[in-house]
What does this fold into?
Amino acid sequence: MIDDLDTLVVRVRKAKKEKEIVSIAYHGNIVEVWERFDIENVFVDLGSDQTSLHNPWSGGYYPVGFSLEESNEMMKNNPDLFKEKVQESLRRQAMAINKHTAKGSYFFDYGNAFLLEASRAGADVMADDGIHFKYPSYVQDIMGPLFFDYGFGPFRWVCTSNNPVDLEITDKIAAEILTELMRNSPAEIQSQMADNIQWIQGAQKNNLVVGSQARILYADAEGRIKIAEAFNKAIALGVISAPIVLGRDHHDVSGTDSPYRETSNIYDGSSFTADMAIQNVIGDAFRGATWVSIHNGGGVGWGEVINGGFGMLLDGTAEADGRLKSMLYWDVNNGISRRSWARNRGAINTAKRAMEINPNLKVTLPNFADDQLLEGLF
It folds into this structure.
């Protein structure tokens, strides 16, 4: 933890020189860090911003040049001035980031509306076409093409017993299931499988539980169903002492419509519609979810995102086994279909594989046009 910029510069240079693996927290304003690193020629290989700019005027972003106390006082007693200072700060931050990227730094937007609010403030963040941002969201670069298009997303479970022993058993079950599935997994998802096996095998050692005895793991439809099925059997046999509740994050394959984050790598124009989350919730409800939710906002901002969620109780019964297979299958493949229709190659391959596994699934696959044939027609 460092709260002085001079000390920060020295410490970062030392870490870079010695190729040290270290996490450094700076207690201050990030705008000053971007600007100081530019002046000191501290090269930033990779940069991003996860500021809560979906809530820019009520504490999601604090302007540079003011203390926490000064900002809070201004926010309460002079909100118009606070908004002005936030927008000034955003323009400064974007200018500093642009200076770094001009030197070769790579910047991406996390998706918490940094680029969106910066553009509204008049910051230099737009591409030459005046429509798109000059920097991608990390869903466009990482999450979409590597995970969401292949059906991988944050699968969650909570041990209702609140017993650490039950959680440890679920970890072992999940690791065994994924290890077995990996043996026959396609080449394009081998690395995703390996990453998640490493994650779940190290979960106990790294003491990742905060609060409830719960876990989160990235898995595709097949992995989620197989893991949930094994949990349900273990509950029926008394190996796990109490029911388990399944869920997932809204930041997933098909649970959210958000053109600046979750659906930002859907390029057929449908990223600005909110049908996928609605279809997801309705389908989950009909296919056996214990509860469902549909909500606005959540990390991107009111009016910028629709989220659909679910909870499913596993109690060891045959009915729960039928529900988990029906609902989890839909919950993922609804999004795979949408992403394949947008002509995302990974999603098309995933849709084909899903249809091979389950002959009852029929997904219309897209046709690819020859762009050269279309040139000059419009």
User: Anything to note?
Assistant: The chain has a mean pLDDT of 93. The radius of gyration is 23 Å. The longest helix spans residues 79-102.
